[in-house]
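Fill in residues.
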């Protein structure tokens, strides 16, 4: 790990020289890397190093759209799938905030025709109709 850390600090100047990161890197996690070897030896696995969050995002953003693609020029299909899923999620939030996703079609029709009953009374009426 020490060797890998030294190589990281030695070769990261390429990003500055190429203009990718003209001001260099100043990230807290890169600084904390210097302390990890000592801390791992003293205490075991480092805290805050959990890949489950990024893995779940990777599954939703990469693996599922890949499976939905036909594997030919898949990147464009994957991006389009993600864009559509984002729009669906946004519209679901919008519809929920407007009260458009509450109840069922049957409960709404019964409520219009029979007046405003309580939810439990509506459930009993729907159960009687469906049984």
């Amino acid at each position: 790990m020490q060797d890998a850390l030294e190589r990281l600090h030695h070769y990261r100047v390429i990003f500055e020289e190429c203009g990718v990161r003209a001001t260099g890197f100043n990230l807290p996690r890169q600084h904390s890397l210097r302390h990890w070897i000592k801390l791992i030896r003293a205490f075991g696995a480092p805290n805050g190093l959990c890949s489950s969050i990024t893995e779940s995002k990777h599954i939703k953003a990469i693996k599922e759209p890949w499976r939905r693609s036909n594997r030919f020029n898949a990147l464009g299909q994957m991006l389009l799938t993600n864009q559509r899923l984002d729009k669906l999620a946004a519209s679901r939030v919008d519809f929920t905030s407007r009260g458009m996703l509450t109840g069922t079609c049957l409960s709404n029709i019964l409520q219009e025709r029979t007046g405003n009953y309580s939810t439990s009374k509506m459930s009993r009426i729907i159960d009687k109709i469906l049984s």
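The chain has a mean pLDDT of 80.
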